[in-house]
Known about the structure:
The protein is α/β, with parallel strands linked by helices. It has 13 helices and 21 strands. Strands 2, 3, 4, 11, 12, 13, 14, 15, 16, 17, 18 and 19 form a 12-stranded mixed beta sheet that branches.
Amino acid sequence: MDNKEPKDGAYNNDATDKFYGQENAEQSQFSSSTDASLNAASKRGYKKTNKRGLGKFWLVSVAIVVIAVVSAIIATITGPQKNPASQTSSTQVSNKTVSIGLKLAPTNLDIRNQSGSSLEQLLIGNVYEGLVARNTKNQVVPSLAKSWEISKDGLKYTFHMRKGVVFSNKHRLTAKDAEWSFNELVAKKYRGSNMVGKVESAKAKDDYTFEIKLKEPNAKLLWALCSRAGLVFDKLANYDAKTQAVGSGPYLVEKFVPNDRVVLKANPCYKGINKPRTSKVVVRYFVDDVAAVDALSSGAVQALAPISGQLAKTFKADAKRYVVKAGNSTDKFVLAMNMNGERTKDKRVRQAIRYAIDHKQIIASRGGTDALLGGPIPSLDPGYEDLTNIYTHDVKRAKSLMKEAGFSESNPLHLSLTYPNIYGTQLGDQLRSQLKKIGIDLKVNIVEFTTWLHDVYNNKNYDLSMVDHNESHDFGQWADPKYYYGYNNKQVQDLYAKAMLCANTKESNKLLAKAARIVSKDAPADWLLNYKVVTAKVKNLEGMPFDINQVLLPLYNLRLK
């Protein structure tokens, strides 16, 4: 492929990145997200090691819970793009150990079967590598594949793989490993398989050319390959995937202590593009906020992510020693309104709720680091449009709508809000207070996650519910009438379907934006805030990412000056 003038639909590692998006195939479990956990609850448990030998972050304050149930979206590459080099300073590997503190620990290392963004955060790009990757700007970039082409009909993806790459056991990595890994993914329905679409074939054309043919276009494929679906494993390796790892990444798993720490050491066999800057990285997991803060203060760790705005104040005040920053993320705190509920199916009630909520007050009470979000697509995802002007804070308008629906402060509407106890009580108290002003008597039910999963997610027995949907490119939730929202809009479904099959990125984005505007106006939910991850680190630590680090954490960039 000519790197100077790439063809349409081609990606080469010497071009400028213009990624417009695709759905992440994985449900993530950030310390306060729910989707991964939901997924885990609905799937079967671990499978035994196969014949080839490959088996099958901190809670921010107390107010986050992760749910990232899978939906799909779009992605195509248009025009030339450039691979960012991760090595920003001296190629000499530092012998200073870097330790960082996170919140949610992985229960095991089996990335093909175990849910949770904690696994993705730890392993993808650091221990295991995929055909492609995403950077901290949520863009698709090269990884094991140095370049690729997509046919004009969107049915054939051809990946040109890097030469000289080996696994940590010194086995040579070729397109045949990519072929085996992808076909195993599809056949055994490993996590991420539901995102690759209808596959006709996946074959190694030669040692360094891998080709995927689809039965129908699937614009989400590249995005899926950025995560678990695109990982390449050694078909000849024999190891316990729950406690060990054999990958091609810059690090090896030296030690895994469940619920405590993971020790990574530089992979001496590494031949890739992301050379480790530090010989050893220790990832520690803290359940207790006080212990985590003490660890950073004492120097036991050099970074904490995430950390609440309140706890970060001490470090922020000591600017000579620490850097504190709120990074961008795709976390959406969604106040769902049951579209099939006796009262919440009334659009006037849902609109009144949206007008009544004072989002700025909520964000200010959380430390002021979060961002306003008026619809289902955050700024890092394709199709984003600022929709905060659709429902501005307007108590007068909210009261008028409630009056039309037959309710007032003297004749209140009784509703319940159900959410997992990981979120704490503050948000529930605020919503109760704000909605009382417009004639809604809100009963707040704070429950165990398993109860929420049973009552809300599975049985759809609720009026209002709140969770953090943290995964990128998850707009497909709103095109699925069977999802727990109960939102069923044929126009939105058609727009989403067209967007997924659209070969033109700009056009697909327009379709998504149009669909998102319809969803926001219909008010099946209110988007309370776009959560921004706060990271605190020592000033002499280089390479610590701030954006989307709850799912993407390039540990190979870390280095102490």
